[in-house]
Amino acid sequence: MNNTTPVLQQWLEQYNQKLAHWQAQGNTFTPAIVRESLATMTRTYVTDIPELSLVIDDSVDNGGHPVPVRIFHPDQYSSLEVAVFLHGGGHMAGSIEVYDPICRKIALSAQRIVVAVDYRLAPEHPYPIGIEDGAAVLDACEVMFDGLGFNYRPSIALVGDSAGGAMSATLAHKYHTDMKQKIDKLVLIYPSLDYSLRSPSTDLFGIGYLLEKDRIQWYFDHYFSNEQDRSEASPIDMEITDTFPETMVITAGFCPLRDEGIEYAKRLKKHAIATRHIDFKATVHAFLNLENLDPDICRSCYQELGTFLRSPDLG
Fold first, then answer.
1. I need a surface site. Which of 69, 168, 177, 218 has the fewest CB within 10 A?
2. Number of domains within the chain
């Protein structure tokens, strides 16, 4: 656990001991267990929940399926730009309820209207259903806001953490040549970008740092229910053109997904895409869900992504 903060190091040691004891008793992970685990962890360690001008629930139709959304408006009397948020959880866990406090902080720091998507989860709804739910929300934002009587500016950013980062990047690749909907910025927070797990960090930090390699593989095996080409579905292997949006990639120093985030940022820069990469070296995957263990890192993360989303360019 070298070079993590002392508080995080102690927490990881206790967490790993409890996990080993739980597994020694013959317990195994299930979708229900990982969903409750993420929800409990976030409730326990994200206790600062700021008030916003307006928070409302709505839904968007996707082929007869209502996709729930939660809208976080930091200033309901101002005309603001929009950020669509796709949460993490290995494509299996997470919800707009679990991520409510995180979305509030993104809305405040970015001064954007945040639309959090309660996309359908695997294994009940495997790839690409969740991505299709996200696309439906992107397509419906303007109509939804008009119906709600919002003043807004027709500029949309995509923001996602972990699995939500994978989905956000996938949608950015899908939409960057589609003039119907322009994605102006992309923020990826410790994103999952390579479903083949080729990066060295997946082995280097694949045991003992909260998100473990065998669990990632288990998530992916449930997400891809058929014989899909996982490389083709991986944003790290997708085509990049000069119309791709400005991008911020945030990685964590002890995250098994760190190297794919770094490599993705390098690929974007190689294609002359305005890109900013920030590595929070002393922490682990999902640190925003563990805020009370290191509030300074989380505060810095929100400040950085807020500055990026408010700025007209990377300067």
1. 177
2. 1
Q: Which domain holds residue 302?
A: 6-310
| Residue 284 placed within a domain | yes
Task: Tell me the C-alpha distance between 276 and 246, whole Å.
Answer: 8
- 239 is written with which tokens? 């085509």
Round to whole Å and give the CA distance between 82 and 61: 19
pTM for this predicted structure: 0.97
- Establish if 1 belongs to a structural domain: no
**Does 140 fall in a domain?**
yes
Which CATH number covers residue 53? 3.40.50.1820
